[in-house]
Amino acid sequence: MTGKNALLAALYDPLDPDRGDLDAYVRVAEEFGARRVLDIGCGTGVFALLLADRGVEVVGIDPSGASIDVARGKPGSDRVRWLHGDATVLPALEVDLATMTANVAQEIVDPEVWRETLRRTYESLRPGGRLVFETRDPARRAWEEWNREDSHGVTEVPGVGVVESWVEVTDVSRPLVTFRWTYVVAADGTFPADRGAAADRAVAPGDRRVLTSDSTLRFRERAEVEADLTARGFVVDEVREAPDRPGREFVFVARRPRTP
């Protein structure tokens, strides 16, 4: 892999090693006895491989070719069917469960693409199969906590160097919120003397590479999501709370009916 996207993909797992948020999705797969799972927005394959380790047949799809490359390079990746693209180009499948973990549902910001994603996901499920995904409750205004002071970190990444990272919101135009992650990579792993607060530390000029990654999320109201699901043929069985963020997110459990 080469280029900015490849480096960003390679940094994803080391900078976010705690994926305890996926435990709830593993339990969902067990709860519904899912033997075939579609992981929409699989990224670097963490969740897909967790399921594959449990003997589940998994299809992982993601629009980032660099992320798919990382996923394919992991141990056990040959047990997962990896697809490069978004859910609007899904092949014919009959899975028991489809998931969109973390930010995936909110990253689909275009209303038409969102509706088409739901339609194609519906078609990929067997009758009685379920779609489970999370989205943040707009009323909790999560973006107000996305700032450098609270997000700043410094991580030693093997094979890359020392990486300083933080996030800042760049625009709020409800229901859309745009933010930027900044990564400062010091290939030799050195920082100047610590001046106190971690947020003040910087890599010496000439020894660093600065990367940025901009993202936009759509904050949908619960009623809007339920209406979108129903319009695509789903039955909304329940709306749960995210175990790792109680009171802050909606977790939708929708089902393709066994009969039209």
Task: Please work out how many helical segments DSSP would assign.
Answer: 8
| CATH class membership of the largest domain | Alpha Beta
CATH fold assignment of the largest domain:
Rossmann fold
Question: Which sheet architecture does the biggest sheet show?
Answer: 7 strands, mixed
- The total of beta strands comes to 11
Strand content: 25-35%
Q: Secondary-structure element order, as H and E?
A: HHEHEHEEHHEHEEEEHEE
Strand order of the largest sheet: 3-2-1-4-5-11-10
Unreliable stretches:
189-206
What does this structure look like?
By secondary structure, this protein is an alpha/beta fold. The chain has two domains: 3-136 and 221-255, Rossmann fold (3-Layer(aba) Sandwich), CATH 3.40.50; 140-218, no CATH class. 27% of the residues lie in helices and 34% in strands. It has eight helices and eleven strands. The chain has helices at 3-15, 23-31, 46-53, 65-72, 104-107, 111-124, 148-151, 222-231, and strands at residues 36-40, 57-62, 80-84, 95-100, 125-136, 153-157, 161-173, 176-186, 208-218, 235-241, 249-255. Strands 3-2-1-4-5-11-10 form a seven-stranded mixed beta sheet, with helices on both faces. β1 (36-40), α3 and β2 (57-62) form a beta-alpha-beta unit. α1 crosses α4 (65-72). The longest helix has 14 residues, at 111-124. The protein is globular and about 60 Å long.
